[in-house]
Amino acid sequence: MRSWLPNVTSNILRCAQSPGILRTFHYENLRHRSVSTAPQNEKPYYITTPIFYVNAGIAKKPGFKMTLLGQQCPLPFSADGRSLRPPKLMLKERGYIYQSKHEGWYSVSDETFCPPSAVHLILDPSTGRKLMASQETGKEVEWTSENNYHFCMSNLRDRLLQFYADNPHFVEPSTRMQDVVQQATSGLSDLSISRPVERLSWGIPVPDDPSQTIYVWLDALINYLTKANYPFQIPGQEHAAGWPADVHVIGKDIVRFHCIYWPAFLLALDLPLPKQVLTHAHWTLGREKMAKSTGNVVNPFFALERFDTDTMRYYLVRDGGIKDDSDYDNTFIISRYKSLQGSLGNLVTRIVRGHGWSVQRAVQYGRFGEDTEAQSLLENLTKLPSEVETYMSELHPGKAIQQILQIIDQ
Question: Of 403, 381, 380, 378, which is closest to residue 392 (Cα–Cα)?
Fold first, then answer.
């Protein structure tokens, strides 16, 4: 059996727990655990996580390294989305940028304009106030009218739809792929990509217009490229740093930015698109959405101190939802871990026995004996690597873990 298979998800989670702004990693070959150096012109496997903002209690720690399948991978951190050449200028040169008045529903928390079809009237349970909110994130929106720069996303609708048709598994799971295609099919409005500096002063100024601040998502998404030093690379080594990304790992609340806006920017610049986007569901607490405003949150540092890192990794990978939300509960963590202890303990007990027990003779008996139960187990063990590899390639690490546990418990 390939020795790397049981360790894949744990090592991937090791990256996901490191705090920071931009987190990316790549590895060279899933099938080799030994540390090796790939040829300079060989593309490594490149995985990214979203651009998280530093806030209270989480320190930015540049220079992290992680071990993925036995290989040392750098974990770079970036405090903003500054690229070597502003994307706004590149898009403007290609005729995709124009300036005009923009009106619409704007979410301050999400830093984005929402189309009319994406907002609705809600009642704030904490205040009893009626307000307009984003259907996608639940954050309040306000009606705004201002002069901004715009990106001609409507001109890229047909190219986007063709890309989706040619890459039906671009977004996982398939239900969110269908949502993305539906949004693009129903029509794409041009995207506001700047705000007046008097309303947004802390961002990066528009290079040729200091009265405007660049829309944060435009410049932030470019970080995925600049981390890979793309497209400013040594001739013959264009893919040595990893682009295009093999997988973007994101939450379901930022699907529109990564699966519609980001591909549109890249298509406009004639740059390669990421191969796939894994969109995961959220963790709830008490079957309710986690939110700082209501205090319905989990302190990850307290959880790590109580349960230790490996226990949390195992629980998050095993129970974390891809399609549907999962409910976080300390009793679930304890239950899952005790069950794992029991399974592994029983396995060790069956293998390491008293005097007169020989693992070698037991293996030989299982392979060449007539015990139908042993033969069934052997067949399942033989199929296990390919089954787990299938789940991992389909981006379902939780199912891979459960498949391994089914064999252990036989």
Answer: 403
**For residue 290, with 0-12 CB atoms within 10 Å meaning exposed, 13-18 middle and 19 or more buried, which class applies?**
middle
**Residue 198 token pair:** 């008097």
Pick out the chain residues at pLDDT < 70. Answer: 1-41, 51-86, 231, 238, 293, 366, 368-370
Dump pLDDT digits (tens) for 232-290.
Answer: 777 777 677 788 999 999 999 899 999 999 999 999 999 999 999 999 999 999 998 88
Amino acid letter, 30? L
Rounded Cα gap, residues 286 and 83, in angstroms: 42
Residues 6+ apart with CB under 8 A from 347: 408
Q: Which amino acid appears at position 375 of this protein? A: Q
Task: Please give the Cα distance from 395 to 36 (Å, whole number).
Answer: 25
**Strand partners of residue 75:** 64
For 113, residues 6+ apart whose C-beta sits below 8 A from its C-beta are 102, 104, 105, 106, 107, 144, 191, 192
The secondary structure of the chain, three-state, reads CCCCHHHHHHHHHHHHCCCCCEEEEEECCCCCCCCCCCCCCCCCEEEEEEECCCCCCCCCCCCEEEEECCEEEEECCCCCCCCCCCHHHHHHHCCCEEEEEEEEEEECCCCEEECHHHEEEEECCCCCCEEEEECCCCCECEEEEEEEEEECHHHHHHHHHHHHHHCCCCEECHHHHHHHHHHHHCCCCCEECEEECCCCCCCCEECCEEEEEECHHHHHHCHHHHHCCCCCCCCCCCCCCCCCCCEEEEEHHHHHHHHHHHHHHHHHCCCCCCCCEEEECCEEECCEECEHHHCECCCHHHHHHHHCHHHHHHHHHHHCCCCCCEEECHHHHHHHHHHHHHHHHHHHHHHCCCCCCCHHHHHHHHHHCCCHHHHHHHHHHHHHHHHHHHHHHCCCHHHHHHHHHHHHCC
CA distance from start to end of the chain: 17
Burial of 2 per CB tally in 10 Å (0-12, 13-18, 19+): middle
Q: How far apart are CA 230 and CA 82, in angstroms?
A: 13
Q: Supply φ then ψ for residue 193, to 5 degrees.
A: -120, 15
This prediction's pTM: 0.76
Q: What is the rounded CA–CA span in Å between residue 107 and residue 113?
A: 6
